Amino acid sequence: MIEIEHLTRRYGPRAVVNDVSLTVQRSEIVALVGTSGSGKTTLLRMINRLVEPSSGRVRIAGTDTATLPPHQLRRRIGYAIQGHGLFPHRSVAQNIATVPRLLGWDRARIDARVDELLDLFQLPPEEFRDRRPQELSGGQQQRVGVARALAARPELLLMDEPFGALDPVIRAQAQQDLRRIQRELGTTLLLVTHDMTEAMFLAHRIAVMDDGRLLQCAPARDILTRPASPLVQALAGEQARPFHLLSLSQVADLAQPGTAEGPPLAPETSLRDALAQCLWSGRDALPVAGGGVVTLAALRQAASGETGRTGAGASVKAGVPSPPASPPAPQ
Fold this sequence. Notes:
transport, disordered C terminus, six-stranded mixed beta sheet, ATP-binding, ATP binding, 2 domains, ATP hydrolysis activity
């Protein structure tokens, strides 16, 4: 879907992005992470030519982006930024309709698409269609911003710190909404985030950058257990690694025969949440809905990285690895 080949951007003698090559498959989510100034946002902006490369090439669905007029390219690519960027003088419906109107869609088609997206984002059209952005909560504004980016059914969605301005509770819900909607639409997604926890929840693969270079691009479990460099290991969080590993799997992956007291856990409960319940309740085993138990001993083994079935690579749906069912607690 996206082929980035030896992409470089220089400002004077300094290479902000330095010879980066990366391929993103159709319907895949890849998160770009790294320290401030690592080049991740510049790399993202070169894909839709908000920043022109100094050298290298980007192809989307086989088409060299340099062969397209920038405005035509950008209408094919959804773009969502931190703080949503909504037009304050336009209604919710008018904001979402921005790109379809530029593309010349007729009124009936635009109205149908606006209502479809509002329903998808759980914003009832009759209640939200005519509101202005300042009448919405921060989380609602962010949903509308993502809906606007998806309005013209883009092949690709680029997101630059889209949830950075949200409080932890709303941010967790926004992450769940995005993952659910991406599964429904199958949109290819490239996301910049400074939050490794967010990257591990959302992404099929994580691309770690430093000083303009791509250090490693791999599933979250590989980033945690086989980091390519000390910096990758540091970004993954040495102390948090056991909890990250547990957040990548569900109790269904670790359930074994047996019985235990207490209310059963849903099979999609993360191992991290199961560990929290074991510790809080002082129990050594928890029942799982549908049969079986998850034990404290098995959770400890999973936290060490020794279990076989864990993380985004554990299950596959339509050829794309599935991430966890619920986000880990904010840190």
